[in-house]
Amino acid sequence: MMKTAEPPGPLSGLRILDLSTVIAGPLASTLLADLGAQVLKVEKPGEGDPLRGLPPYKNGAALWWKVTNRNKKGISLDLRTEEGREILGQLIGEFDVLVENFRPGTLDRWGITKEWLHAINPALIILRVTGFGQSGPYRNRPGFARVFEAMSGFTNLCGEAERPPVHVGFPVADSIGGLFGAIGILSALAWRHRNPAGSGLEIDCSMLEAMFRILDFLPIEYDQLGIVRQRSGNASQYASPGNVYRTADGKWASIAASTQSIFERLCRALGIEASIKDGRFLTNALRVENRSELDALIGQSIGRLSLEALRRTLDAHQVGFSPIYGIDDIFNDEHYAAREAIVKVEDAELGEVRMQGVVPRFCGLACAVGATGPGMGEHNEEIYAGLGIDPSRMDALRGKGVI
To answer: Which of 28, 156, 216, 313 is the 20 to 30 Å CA partner of 180?
Structure first.
């Protein structure tokens, strides 16, 4: 029914029906589409995915959409209607995974229950991506990335000490939720492989819990030490020196010297060898305790060098650092170019566009970005004809707003 034109990859043959919207759910399926899965994106007729309504745009084309839903085919279908539900029932038998991110209970109210889905396709894996999960007192709360970043404790770590917390300029929680969603699907596939007679798993992926999980040691630190970790700006709280420093030509460099040997090499590179035996800086613990004094010394030394001079001397002493890149710097960086980390993709509206390549890579097995996000209902004729729906019925379904 769903003819494949997708690039080969380790997930070639895996079929995913994506009912989700905006970022987290769609990103989960797109990450797997990048690795060869066949993904069919379903949108509400007329309105489409709200991601189409978010900037940036070029000539009316939503650029974010083209990346977050790349390597997918797309159809329009109103799941709230009885005919839409019937068509979904025809589709679902062809797929391994269903992805949705409606509020808990929404699909159930439309008659699309887990029991109904598994009656048609017992092996179907169902990924449910929500803000707060399928249970608990907050399960029906609306949520956005900033809510989950704030409630997870992440935002409390961002910003300068004694200043208000700072939200970063990108919805990090959406991306983290998408990553955990993809991990959930892959884990459920492994379980199904070991239990072929069992029904497909239902995955409850909370974006709040995904953000909370990546903060790793914060809960055990509070539990065992009673510490509520706070903001420290650009200064690392775990190792010193570790900060962002301004060069003589007004550029910014991020440097981390988290081991004793790197600290000593950094001191030699900057001509402050005496700091190596300074009693305040003998160990990392002492350097963290006396971070302000050490940062002042290092900042003064770096402030006398241009960014290029700093690069040369740190490279010569094998000290890792990076200038603070803007996206323009990334496009001009030789390593990104050598790795082909930015790829060219043909788009029906914009012609050739560039975006990130596939991550991760597999030695000896090629994955590729074959297409940008599909147009609204772009593959309706192909998919619905494959279900045996003739053109006259398609016209009737369009007239009623079902497709």
So the answer is: 156
For residue 223, which amino acid is it? D
Contact present, 69 and 30 (Cβ < 8 Å): yes
107-111 own/partner pairs: CB under 8 Å, 24+ apart:
107/79, 110/79, 110/80, 110/85, 111/82, 111/85
pLDDT, position 4: 47
**Which fold, 242-323?**
formyl-coa transferase, domain 3 (3.30.1540)
- Are the beta carbons of 261 and 310 closer than 8 angstroms? no
Q: Is 127 exposed, middle or buried (0-12, 13-18, 19+ CB in 10 A)?
A: buried
pTM of the model: 0.93
Contact 51, 21 (CB under 8 A): yes
H-helix or E-strand spanning residue 321: strand 321-323
List the chain residues with pLDDT less than 50.
Answer: 4, 6
Residue with tokens 């950094």: 266
Strand partners, 296: none
At 197 the pLDDT is 87
Domain ranges (residues) in the chain? 15-214+339-399, 242-323
* Three-class DSSP category at 343: strand
Q: Tell me what pLDDT residue 1 has.
A: 58
Catalytic residue among 174, 223, 249, 395: 174
pLDDT recorded at residue 7: 54
**Of the candidates 383, 381, 382, the residue with the CA atom closest to the CA atom of residue 395:** 381
Phi (first) and psi of residue 43, to 5 degrees? -125, 155
| Active-site residue, 34 included | no
Residue (of 3, 73, 87, 84) closest to 40 by Cα position: 73
DSSP state of 111: T
At a CB cut-off of 8 Å and minimum separation 6, what does 218 contact? 153, 229
Phi, psi of 15 (to 5 degrees): -120, 125
Superfamily of domain 15-214+339-399: Crotonobetainyl-coa:carnitine coa-transferase; domain 1 (3.40.50.10540)
- Residue 35 contacts residue 9 (beta carbons within 8 Å): yes
With vertex at residue 176, the alpha carbon angle to CA 12 and CA 118, rounded to the nearest 5 degrees, is 50
Task: Look at residue 2 in the predicted model and tell me its pLDDT.
Answer: 59
Residue whose token pair is 């593959």: 379
